[in-house]
Amino acid sequence: MYSSLIIILSIILTIISLIVTILSYVYIYLDAKQKNEEPILWLIIALFSGIIGVIVYVISQRKKTYENINPKYFQYLKFSIYYYIAEIIFGIWCFTAILAY
Q1: Among 1, 26, 67, 76, which is 20 to 30 Å from 54 by CA?
Q2: Shortest CA distance to 58 belongs to which of 40, 77, 41?
Q3: Which of 12-16, 29-33, 58-62, 70-74 has the highest mean pLDDT?
Q4: pTM higher than 0.70
């Protein structure tokens, strides 16, 4: 019973993770394109480095000021970083629960 619940939660979390990952890449591309900052390059960096690329993009863009900034891009990217952290914590919890079972 307990292990089947963990499997179901893991499947749901995997689907949500896939959606969040794809949306993160879309937002990085749109934000970089809006700022005329090599959107394809940033997309490639994010694709090959995963969450590290998203974090690098957010940190590199924080100190820059632009007239046409759309704040929803950064809000979403920050959300995706928090989501990945929560996913890692949940994964560790599931792993330890399976080992204890």
Answers
A1: 67
A2: 77
A3: 29-33
A4: no
